[in-house]
Design goal:
501 residues, Aspartate Aminotransferase, domain 1
Length: 501
């Protein structure tokens, strides 16, 4: 017997238990009634036609008509001429019942905790988001949506979606669309002085995925990885979830302290760094440290993950050459992302890997999620190759620079409590508590109170142990007026804590 595709509605209804021995129309009517009363069928939901239900349930159409007619008579369903049958908006049987009181859970009766893997336990300190991030002063690393050229993007989206063929509609190559890999290779070479062919580019979803792939490809469970301290915490959780042991290496004004890393764990397999603009302190890794890091990697058969998360935004001085561009031995895994320079919902990033590792990374990407969304890749490839990305970067670089200068000027209101670090690049700036206030201010408590008052600053302690607490401010998405108001709020919050100390 050939089975036809049924409606989702009828499949759900057919799964409800009914009393045996009833006529078919009564059983069908009871199934639908129970679904309505239980809330499985919401008020005002349109029901399939009687013809469709008859086909799905394998009965005569008259049988379904009798069942629906009885439900109409009982007030569960209403029929609208020319539109069909709908669940009634008000069901007396359901609406007359008072809501069941919530039963207090006695600790001894509480459901026992489920057993989790060690990987899941490692991720509990980095919980997932259940609400989208809000754009407010001073949310770090969130580009302002009003500056993105949505009309251009939408036009390209419609054009690419209308192309003939199945390039965007079938399973794609795990390493990404050739057109996008070519565009990325050209962009990274021009902007960040990387040295690669399109074959070395692998399109991924995020920096976190790049780190996860590197951890799986280049290290075994139990191996060690250097990370910056303070540093970008999501990466540390990705490494731990991959089974690696994280070694926190201190950062100073010259970037990652390579000698300290050698002393802590000389035989680490990986080192994760943000050399162009250290996150969150904002310093640049000196050339001496860069050479030392490359030398360590070559000497110990290790690899460096270079996260160039906002390298497209530099406002003073000459651009800093990428580690990948000066790497002579194929020890750098270069990571770039469009999620911060375009919009976070895009979920497209890329990794440039040494030629001998391309196959292993593509295999790992294939095992992780097959491939990154193809239509979005096609739109982004056109966005880059037709010059829209370059124009967007020129526009946003000028706006961010203006907002950066405005922030630094308005931040004088905090000059007696915060020492601001480098602010020559990126989208954020960090202020450290002055030595005299270190013991009297709790950066996490200040961040909580600021959030209550409508602003978002990140506590520096969130990024790991430091000698001094502080606050991380995003300036790219905040106008001068909002900056002034927001900094005044921070000033008031800090003053209240100092007063109560």
């Amino acid at each position: 017997m050939v089975k036809h595709a049924g409606s989702i509605f009828s499949v759900d209804v057919a799964g409800l238990e009914t009393a045996p021995g009833q006529p078919a129309y009564a059983r069908i009517g009871e199934r639908i009634r129970v679904a309505i009363v239980s809330g499985a069928l919401a008020p005002n939901v349109r029901l399939p036609s009687s013809r469709t239900l008859a086909q799905d349930l394998g009965v005569a159409r008259n049988t379904v008509d009798w069942a629906l007619g009885q439900l109409v008579a009982d007030g569960y369903i209403v029929r609208r001429r020319g539109a069909g049958s709908f669940v009634a908006a008000c069901i007396p049987e359901r609406d007359a019942q008072p809501p069941a009181p919530k039963r207090a859970v006695i600790p001894s009766q509480a459901e026992p905790a489920r057993r989790l893997s060690q990987r899941a336990q490692a991720l509990q300190s980095y919980p997932g988001h259940y609400q989208p991030a809000s754009a407010k002063a001073f949310t770090p690393s969130l580009p302002p949506g009003e500056l993105f050229p949505r009309k251009v993007w939408n036009r390209l989206l419609i054009r690419e979606a209308s192309r003939p063929g199945n390039d965007y509609w079938a399973y794609g190559a795990s390493n990404g669309l050739p057109a996008l890999r070519e565009a990325i290779a050209a962009h990274a070479s021009a902007m960040r002085a990387t040295c690669c062919s399109p074959d070395q580019v692998i399109v991924i979803t995020s920096t976190q995925q790049a780190v996860e792939l590197a951890g799986k490809v280049l290290a075994d469970p139990g191996d060690r990885a250097w990370v910056e301290m303070p540093g970008y915490q999501p990466v540390q959780h990705c490494l731990r979830a991959a089974g690696l042991q994280v070694v926190q290496v201190p950062v100073d004004a010259q970037g990652l302290d390579v000698e300290a890393g050698r002393q802590l764990e000389p035989h680490a397999r990986l080192a994760y760094v943000t050399p162009a603009h250290q996150y969150p302190l904002g310093c640049e890794m000196s050339l001496e440290r860069r050479k030392a890091l490359l030398s360590w990697a070559q000497q110990h058969d290790a690899y460096i993950i270079e996260d160039d998360y906002d390298g497209d935004y530099r406002y003073e001085g000459r651009p800093i050459a990428s580690l990948q561009g000066i790497d002579e031995h194929g020890r750098v895994i270069y990571v770039g992302s469009f999620n911060k320079i375009l919009f976070p919902g895009l979920r497209i990033a890329y990794v440039i890997v040494p030629e001998p590792l391309v196959g292993a990374f593509v295999n790992a990407k294939h095992a992780a999620d097959g491939h990154t969304a193809l239509l979005a890749q096609g739109v982004l490839a056109a966005f880059i190759s037709e010059g829209h990305l370059a124009r967007h970067l020129r526009k946003t670089r000028a706006v961010y620079d203006e907002r950066r200068l405005a922030f630094l000027e308005e931040a004088n209101v905090l000059a007696d409590v915060l020492d601001f670090g480098p602010a020559t690049a990126g989208m954020h700036v960090t202020g450290l508590f002055k030595p005299g206030h270190t013991g009297h201010l709790d950066d996490r408590a200040i961040a909580v109170e600021g959030a209550r008052l409508g602003i978002e600053v990140h506590p520096l302690s969130k990024y790991g142990a430091t000698d001094r607490g502080g606050l991380v401010f995003g300036f790219a998405g905040t106008s001068r007026a909002a900056t002034r108001t927001g900094l005044q709020t921070v000033r008031q919050v800090i003053a209240s804590f100092l007063h109560s100390a």
